[in-house]
Amino acid sequence: MGRLWKKKEIRILKGNIVYSRNKDELEICEHSYLVCADGKVDGIYQTLPFRLGGNPIRDCGDCLIIPGLTDLHIHAPQYSFRGMAMDLELLDWLDAYTFPEEMKYGEMEYAGKAYSIFAENMKKSAVTRACVFSTIHRPATMVLMDKLEKTGLVTLVGKVNMDRNAPEGLCEETEESLAETEIWLEEVRSRDYRNTGPILTPRFVPSCTDRLLEGLGELQKKYALPVQSHLSENLSEIRWVSELCPWSGFYGDVYDRFGIFGGECPAVMAHCVHSTEEEILRMKEKGVFIAHCPESNMNVASGIAPVKRYLEEGMNVGLGSDVAAGSTENLFAAMAHAVRGSKLRWRLQDESRKPLTVEEVFYMATRGGGAFFGKNGSFEPGYEFDAVVLDDSRLSHPQGLSVRERLERIIYLADEREVRGKYIRGNELFFYGYNI
Amino acid sequence: MGRLWKKKEIRILKGNIVYSRNKDELEICEHSYLVCADGKVDGIYQTLPFRLGGNPIRDCGDCLIIPGLTDLHIHAPQYSFRGMAMDLELLDWLDAYTFPEEMKYGEMEYAGKAYSIFAENMKKSAVTRACVFSTIHRPATMVLMDKLEKTGLVTLVGKVNMDRNAPEGLCEETEESLAETEIWLEEVRSRDYRNTGPILTPRFVPSCTDRLLEGLGELQKKYALPVQSHLSENLSEIRWVSELCPWSGFYGDVYDRFGIFGGECPAVMAHCVHSTEEEILRMKEKGVFIAHCPESNMNVASGIAPVKRYLEEGMNVGLGSDVAAGSTENLFAAMAHAVRGSKLRWRLQDESRKPLTVEEVFYMATRGGGAFFGKNGSFEPGYEFDAVVLDDSRLSHPQGLSVRERLERIIYLADEREVRGKYIRGNELFFYGYNI
C-alpha cells in the first residue's frame, strides 16, 4: 500500500506580520511565525505549534511581512516612457505619446527589449499580482506573457482590442480583431502557464465599435474570461462615449449591454473618476471592481475619484499604478498618492467625505485589489500565500517606532530597495541577504 | 617682486549640461565642458578653449549635469518622523506630532543622533543649498549647524522663536527668546563657518507675540540677517492670525509691520496657499521669496498654492520639501508634486491658469529658489558653481531619449541613487564610481 496522503509542503517566515482585517483595521503580529502549507496560509503563531517543529524557518529579523500587493491596472508597453510626456490630458496624451509608442510593439525586437525591462522591474517590486494591458499585437503579447510567467508573478494579461479612433497601424478590422483574440486565447491555452492568464481587454469604448464589444462578450462567455477596461476617467472621454453610443444610459452601460461588466463576468474598470449615480449603482449590482489610479488621475488632470465613498459603500476597490499615466510601478507611491488626492478632494470638492486613511489605502493595495484574484491579499487561513518581506532599515531614524508607524513610513517612502523577499503561492521568488 | 596675480583654480566637468535660461526655456548643451574658475562658473564650451588646456577633466560620460537644487523650506528636527503622522491638518498636526517631537531636541544626545541622519541624507541628495528650521533650542541648533557645515552644503539655519501658543517646554519667555537668539548669533559668528549662516526664524505669527517680532526686527537690522517663516498656509491659521493681530491688514502685514518682510530684509515665506490680493501685492513690492511646498500642502490638506500665477507675475518663487509635512528631502519629488498639484488646481479650482511645466518646476528648484542665495542656480558665467551630476542609467528603457526627456524622467523618478557627483562653490563633495 502506498501513502494515503502527501505530506504538506510547509514554509515558515518569522517577522512582524501586518495585514488588513478589514478596510479600517490592521492586524499586527510582532515577531510571529507566518506559516504556509501547500501554497496557502495556514496561520500566524506567536509560538510555533509542536506539529510544525522540524520545518526550516526563514527568520526575517525585524522586517515587516505584508501580503503581496495587487496592481489592478498597468500598461506594460507604456513602461518604456514612464515619467515622461506628462503635459497633456487623456485624449491628446493618447494621440501624441501613447499610440506612437504602442505602435512600436509590432516589432518583436523592440517588444522583447521593452518587456524584459518591465518584467524585471515588476519582479523586484512589492507587487505579486497584476492586471496588465499589452497592445493590439498578438505576438508581442505572447512575449510579454512568457516573460511574466518566468518572473513567478501572477498576472492577467490582455491583448488590446481597438477597431475605431486609433491611428493606422493600431486600428484593427473588427472581425480580424476578434479572430486574432481567439487565436491568442488558444495560443495561451497551449502554453500551459502556471501563473499567467488571459483577460479580455477592449481598450475603452471610444476605440471599440458595438460589434467588437459584442464579439468580445461572446468570447467572454465561450472562454469564461475576466475583462479589464477603462471607465469614466475624463470628462471629454465621457462626452465622446455618449456621442458614440447615444443609446447608452451611461458609460458603463455600454460594457454592460454586451455582458462584460460584472455579474457572470469578473470585470475591473480603471478610474471611475466621474461615474454617475446610475453607473455607481450598476457597478454595485454587478460587483464590478474599481482600479483607483490616483497618480494617473493627477498626471493627466482627470480629477480625483470619490474612492472614500466607494469604500464606505462596500464596493470592490483596489489600486492601479496605471503606468505610464502613472510614473511608477511602485504601488507604495500609489497608496501615498491616494491619500494625498483624497485630502485635496476633501479640501476642494467635498467636505463631507474625510480623507483616506493609511488603513484604507493599505487595504486597497492588498485585500481590496487582491480579491480580483480570489482569496488573496490577506494572511487569514486559507488565503493564497503571497507575502512580501520589507526591510526598512534604509529609512534611518533616531527613535523607536511601532510597526504601524513603520508601515506608514513605508507607504510614503519605500520602493523596491525595501523589498528583501517575495513569495507567491508559497514559492520563494527571491530573498536577499539572509540565510535560513 | 611677488607674483601679481594668483592662478585661478580651474575645475572642468564634461557631460550633458542642462540649466534654466528662464522659467520657460532650458539651455541644453550635450557632451560639453562646464568650466569652473575660483568657485564660479566660467562658461560652457563645446570644444575646450586653448587657455584651459592642461587642466584635469572630470568626464561624466552620458550623465546629466544640472545646477544644485535649493530647498527653500525644510524642518531638520522633523526629519525623524518623515513619512508618518499624516492624518491631521496643520494646527492639530503641530500639537499632536510636531511639538512633542521638537521637544526632544532639548536633549543633546537625541539631537546629535537625529541631526546626523538629517545631514547625511541631505548631503546625498541633489540639494546644494537650503533654508533650514531648527527648534527653539540653541545648543541643538549649534549641533545642527556644525553637522551641516561638515557636509559642505550651503545652508541658512534658524533657531526657532516661539513665545505663545506652544506647549510648556517649547514656549519661551519673550525677552529670553530674544536674548538666546543674540547669544546664538554671537556663537555662530565665533564658529567662523564657511558654508553655514544664521537666519532669523519666528515660527509663525500664532506662536510669536508682537513684542517678539519687534525684537527680531531689531536683531535683523543690527545683524543684517535674512528671515524665514510661514505664511497663509491654512485657512484656520489665517483666521487665527487675524484674531491675534486685529490691527493687521492681512497675515503678511504682521511680519511687514516689524520690518521682517522683504525690502532691506531678505525674507522667504513658506506656502502662500491662500494669500489675498493685498498680501500678494505687498510681497511683490518687497521682493519676498515664496517657498512653494506642494507635497506638504497636500499632506496636511492645506490646498494648492497658485504658483503658476506667482511665476507669471514675476515673483520670487522656489520649492520647499517642508519635511515632515512633506515626506522627503528629495526635491525631484517636490517638482513632480508641484506639477501634479497644478493640474488638479487647473481642473478643480481655476481653469484660467494652465498647469506648471517641467521647465517651470525645474526653474523653481534651481534658479528660482537659488536666487535667495545670490547668483546661484544657473550655469551662466559668474554664477556660483553648484553642480550635480546625475546618472539615470538605473531608469532603464528600450529607446533613445533626448536630454529633455531624460530630465523629465529624472523629475518623476529620480532620488539620491541618481546623484553621482556634487559640487558646491567649486568644491567636490563627492563623485562616485569614475576616475578622472
Number of strands of chain A: 17
| Spatial order of the strands forming the largest sheet of chain A | 3-2-1-4-15-16-17
Q: What structural category characterises the helix and strand content of chain A? A: alpha/beta
Calculate the terminal CA-CA distance of chain A, rounded to whole Å: 36 Å
Largest sheet of chain A: 7 strands, mixed
Your description of this structure?
Two copies of one chain form a homodimer. Chain A is α/β, with parallel strands linked by helices. Chain A folds into two domains: 10-67 and 379-431, Roll (Urease, subunit C, domain 1), CATH 2.30.40.10; 69-373, Metal-dependent hydrolases (TIM Barrel, Alpha-Beta Barrel). Chain A is 36% helix and 23% strand. The first copy, chain A, has helices at 90-103, 108-124, 138-151, 174-191, 210-223, 235-244, 251-257, 277-286, 294-299, 307-312, 331-348, 358-370, 403-413; strands spanning 10-22, 25-37, 40-45, 57-67, 69-75, 127-133, 154-158, 160-161, 196-198, 201-202, 227-231, 267-271, 289-292, 316-319, 387-390, 419-424, 427-431. In chain A, the strands form four sheets. The first copy, chain A, has a seven-stranded mixed beta sheet with strand order 3-2-1-4-15-16-17. In chain A, helix 4 runs parallel beside helix 5, helix 11 crosses helix 12 (358-370) and helix 11 (331-348) crosses helix 13 (403-413). Chain A is globular and about 65 Å long. The model of chain A has no long low-confidence stretch (mean pLDDT 96).
